[in-house]
Amino acid sequence: MPNSTTTATSAAQPRSAASRAQSAKLRTAVKHIALLLLGWLMIYPLIWLFLSSFKTNADLFGTLSLWPSQFVWDSYVKGWAGTGQYSYTTFFYNTFVLVIPTVVLTVLSSVLVAYGFARFKFPLRNLLFVLMISTLMLPHTVIIIPRYLIFRNLGWLDSYLPFIVPAAFGCFPFFIFMLVQFFRGLPKELDESAVMDGCNPPTILFRILLPLCMPAMISASIFQFIWTWNDFFNPLIFINSVKKFPISLALRMTIDSTGGTIEWNQIMAMAVLAILPPVLVFFFSQKYFVEGIATTGIKG
């Protein structure tokens, strides 16, 4: 005859396993609900912005409903036409002319500087690297006046040169530091093998190391693209002519130039179009972006 204590223990074990499984399911459900709520909070402003571009002013300021009570279908057409002599075709074109050279030159110059710091020994290398890193600590507002005076003396105001030329000379220490870490993660045996095969430093950089650093370069490109695209302060300081305004200034000008009632749905519509390029760039390259942030560039 089985002991009563043993029987009770055997019966308790299945109940304990079932209880643990139920607890795991409950924790999973709670996690999913929390993630859904967090995702909804993050995407809600974008949904609100998009639906607001179809609302009337009365809907925007008179109700908390997300869905428009009366759709306005021409807000994108009227918003694109602008309020003055320049449409958003001009402003988008200006933004691409400003952003693309800045991004390309930033990545190229950062790669060259990072390669030098990571692979070569020269006098005062450590001191120069520390000085370069220390510039990360400088607030942007501290150097805006010296930059303005320098560019004014060079005659570069009201042009895109204050953005493009510094990008060509490695003036973004954050990207240099990031790429230095990637170069340092690559084994130096690659360089030594290439030297034995007769390669010089430029060949080693462009044919061997850069393909391995592609995720880091794409990450730097995404960062610089989004930061420059969304930049409002620097264009406000250095660009004066309306015909050279990027989108960030154009949106502000649209608000200012409507003397009477502001058609907020048109501004919302242009804001939706303004955020599309950075969002598309991020989503189409997020695989490389995550890889560039999470790895050291070493394959296999």
Automatic annotation (TrEMBL):
- The keyword Magnesium is assigned to this record: no
Q: Which domain of life is it from?
A: Bacteria
Where is the secretion signal located?
none
The regions listed as transmembrane in this protein's record are 33-51, 91-115, 127-151, 163-183, 204-227, 267-284
Q: Where in the cell is it found?
A: Cell membrane
Q: Which SUPFAM superfamilies match?
A: MetI-like
Chief location bin: membrane
- Domain (ABC transmembrane type-1): residue spans on this chain: 92-285
Q: How does it sit in the membrane?
A: Multi-pass membrane protein
Coiled-coil residue windows: none
Keywords associated with the record = Cell membrane, Membrane, Transmembrane, Transmembrane helix, Transport
Q: Which family does it belong to?
A: Belongs to the binding-protein-dependent transport system permease family.
The protein here is known as: Carbohydrate ABC transporter permease
What's the source species for this entry?
Paenibacillus hexagrammi
